[in-house]
Design a protein that fits this description.
2 helices, 59% helix
């Protein structure tokens, strides 16, 4: 029973820490462009791929 005295505040603290991290991510715009990263990998970018040395 005395273990609950320690575990309940620790669980509440970790929950509040996770919630504050999520709210910080919302305010800083982490979830603004959800499709951008998914589509960015499909774009063929020519960043000098012809000049890159090929290993044999």
């Amino acid at each position: 029973m005395t273990t609950l005295v320690y575990l309940i505040p620790v669980a509440l603290f970790l929950g509040a820490l996770g919630l504050s991290g999520f709210l910080w991510a919302l305010r800083s715009g982490q979830y603004e462009d959800l499709d951008g990263a998914a589509e960015r990998i499909l774009i063929d970018s020519d960043d000098g791929a012809e000049n890159a040395p090929r290993s044999k």
